[in-house]
Amino acid sequence: MMIAVYGAGYVGLVSAVCFAKIGHQVICADINEERITTLRHGDCPIYEEQLPQLLKEQILGGRLQFTADISYAIKRATIHLIATGTPSMLDGSADLSQVYAVATQIAREATADGLFVIKSTVPVGTGTAIEAHLKAELAHNDSPVRIEVVSNPEFMREGSAVHDFLKADRIILGGTPEALSRLKMAYQPLLAQGIPMICMSRQSAELTKYAANAMLACRVSFINQMSRIAEQVGANIDEITQGMGADRRIGPHFLQAGIGYGGSCFPKDGRALVQTARSLGIEVPMLDAIDRVNRMQKNWANEQLNKHFNHVLQNKTIGIWGLSFKPDTDDIREASSLVIIDSLLAAGAKLRLFDPVAMPAMQAYLPHHESITWCRSADSVVSDPLDALVIATEWHEFKTYSLSSLQAVLLNAPIIDGRNCFDLSAVEQANISFYYSVGRPTVTAFCKGSTVRTATHHEYNVSGVTSK
Ligand code: UDX
Question: Which atom of ligand 1 is nearest to the CA of 161?
């Protein structure tokens, strides 16, 4: 079976490599010639576990080709998998111009009946609109070819996308039974492993993707909202998550409190869903609140810093560990670190930044800022005296960093842990001067050298004397 994948971005590349891995012939097409040249050499342009190795194997095995010539792919495939970008426009709606451009070209150049499989995240109703567009274009070109439109949303997480494709919880297909039976064949090797396939209408498949993302984002915003209350009453959000998550109806996943979600999906898809609802005249206060809570939560680290330093951040030197929106990716899109960095620069702070893989991405975003020092390692962030250390991403190397050596260099400087990387008892044992984390009591060692926990509405000045 020959599958053409249009778009060699995150979703397209992982899908192309994985379809080749399960035995299909795949052509991955993208108009970005530089990217195609890189891929042809077997070099992986994105940071993704397992992908570089699998990419090389599939190219060497002769199952995967890359081309910048879209026509080459169209003429050879019967399954056209659309994985082009759908960036947000100013009003939050998705820009579908790339999806339409591929549809137009397929309608002009396809020589055999085929499936137009939409993997890009598109608003509900796009499949129907594309179907009408394809029909009109095919008729306009007097083409005898039939192209059916199927929705096949992806649920891959950055950092574990290959795993999420090859070991998916489920495969969702939306379209007519006839079209779906043809697409099922492409997934047969995964179905044979017992991965469930759920077939539904195209509209339902389109909405399922948004509903799943909104539910996950909702859980994150929910627990972050709870963490605000926990902070004020001196409760511990980890204990609350454990208590809630033990209820099988709730479960423990996606209830990790922190400084908000980011990435290419939750924020963008959430806003697109709100936009869809508004265009249908539907009020969606709950969906609105998910994003609003998330925006508020991204200010958490700055709020702690302002409280600690009585709103004087001018010329303070702040270290930041972690720039990517989550660990195991170099993606900084909508990362909480961006909000922290912007506010601190605006307040006149000096920053020492480090991320294990996202430094190039952040350097491209913030070139040559005189208040920023780009550090080579987590150690080098703390090697010069700091006024505070902020942890914005829970990379493994930060979570396993020796707290006692951290205390030895930080001295009186607080740790503002936006990802709850450390156990409070370990923090106490290491005699950390000030440790602020999300939804958990503040830990501080002050005065007589003893360490105490308090609710975070207590404020401290830098000498370590508490005041309410
Ligand atoms: C998400 C969906 O999980 C995936 O199914 C969809 O296809 C794309 O969007 P991704 O953006 O890669 O994947 O990240 P994910 O691992 O889901 O995390 C999203 C964000 O939520 C991250 O910023 C993460 O830090 C945050 N998060 C997640 C929390 O703050 N708490 C949690 O408990 C879980």
Answer: 12
